[in-house]
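help with these tokens:
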Amino acid sequence: MARAHQSHDLFEGAGDVPATRTPALDRLEALVGSWEMEASFEEGYFGAGSPALTSRGGRTTFEWQPGRFFVVQHFTVDNPAAPSGIAIIGATAEPDALVQHYYDSRGVARVYQMRLDEQRWTLWREAPGFWQRFEGVFSADRNTINGAWEGSPDGRSWKHDFALRYIKVG
């Protein structure tokens, strides 16, 4: 018993342990729960001559980790061409700033900056040759998020990638 107490004492005052929980984390409550995902792709997205396609076959859940400092997002997609994965969302050292660490079934690992308010959910990253951004808008009842992903090689000229809708189911 004394050994466990001594071990805990080693971490007191560690610079990476927050003294308090930032209020920015409270905004994540809007995402917590289970959602269905619906993706829409424009004509030609899957190759020349491919038709426009809307597919509802994905699911995602957002849940708090103990302590309520991080939200874990698990997402699965029925289409084998699309990745399933996990993301960890938390606060940064900047006031009101959030960050998402993303990992998927293709072996992709990315870090997105994030904003979340009463009306919008925004994710973005600035990587050499492959910038990305997502903006989703909450419905009035906050049970639907309508959004889209865009990509850019340089952060100046953006191209629509695909539309993504989240529908809350629990």
Q: What stands out?
A: Residues 20-168 form a domain with the Lipocalin fold (CATH 2.40.128.20). The chain has a mean pLDDT of 90. The chain has one domain: 20-168.
